[in-house]
């Protein structure tokens, strides 16, 4: 498997995890007795995933000379 293919596969995996976290967060928010610390950690992880996905997508985009 070539490097771009590996990066694309990793992006897909991270996007799936990101969507799964979104579902978990929304489910927790519906529970009035949800754990705020757990919720904050999940939101932080979701943001980290988003940042990582963005960095990987930037690797796939060729640099364009200015």
From TrEMBL:
Matching Gene3D superfamilies: 6.10.280.50
InterPro entries assigned to the protein according to its UniProt record, in alphabetical order: DUF465, DUF465_sf
Domain of life: Bacteria
Protein name as catalogued: DUF465 domain-containing protein
Pfam family name, one: DUF465
